[in-house]
Amino acid sequence: AQADLLQSQKMEVLGYLTGGIAHDFNNLLTAVIGNLQLAMRRSAGQAELQRLLLGASRAADRGAALIRRMLAFARRQVLHPQAVDLQALVGGMENLLARTIGPAVRVAGLLPPGLWHVRSDPAQLELVLLNLAINARDAMPEGGTLIISAGNETVLPGATHPAELAAGEYVRISVVDTGVGMDVATLARACEPFFTTKPVGRGSGLGLSMVHGVAMQSGGGVQIESQPGEGTTVSLWLPRAEALPVDLSAGSAEAPPAAV
Ligand code: ADP
Hints:
Layout lengths: L1 H41 L4 H29 L6 E3 L1 H7 L1 H8 L3 E6 L7 E3 L1 H18 L4 E14 L7 E13 L6 H6 L17 H11 L3 E7 L3 E9 L21
Parallel strand pairs: 2-4
Antiparallel strand pairs: 1-3, 4-5, 5-7, 6-7
Helix pairs in contact: 1-2, 1-7, 4-5, 5-7
The structure holds adenosine-5'-diphosphate.
Subcellular location: Membrane
Protein name: histidine kinase
């Protein structure tokens, strides 16, 4: 629990920092881009000057795109929980997953009928599954199998001591790969923000932190099992949603049919 707290505090601080910096930087960039546009207009007919200004303005645009990504990351810290049907969610991601993972990896979904709905943020859960699929793909450069399985559970394993179980109603969703796996040292650090073993430009080291953050903020947990050379299983425990849709007034299309 101590480690979980530290982890979510780190992510929270990271969210604040990124959010604050991105916001201030965005204002600065707006001024830079505005002035550049003005200078471009005033320098009509001066080809050399225009070329320099265009270069500066393209760089500023790239900066603005980066800032938008940072702001999106900062916003991700806030969950909008609702009742989620994992069957529908995973079903709706089939094409995206297949495209992300590529032809070398076989994807199999094993979501049993009667799976409880969970209480979490559906948009974040999609990102969670996408992150896990990307990790699985990277772990299987020569191809392999990716399985998404799920089941109703009545206990939540402790994050630091998996044998310590807490009673409750949860759905476990696991992403299983037959990839390179992780050694003990990598496994111990895998969920740390910015920890990555991938080459620069390939990995941000934020995938599993995000997965961990979403599971913890939903009131669930994460467990990673890995064997070097054999593969990795990342499991999320998410709390069961109440039988009734969370927000009746919203009339959300995502709300499950009321079971009363
Ligand atoms: P990133 O994927 O950007 O490196 P993550 O936080 O998602 O960031 O993962 C951190 C590290 O954990 C990876 O660099 C990799 O070493 C290890 N890892 C994560 N998922 C897997 C997996 N499915 N198989 C093997 N190693 C993994």
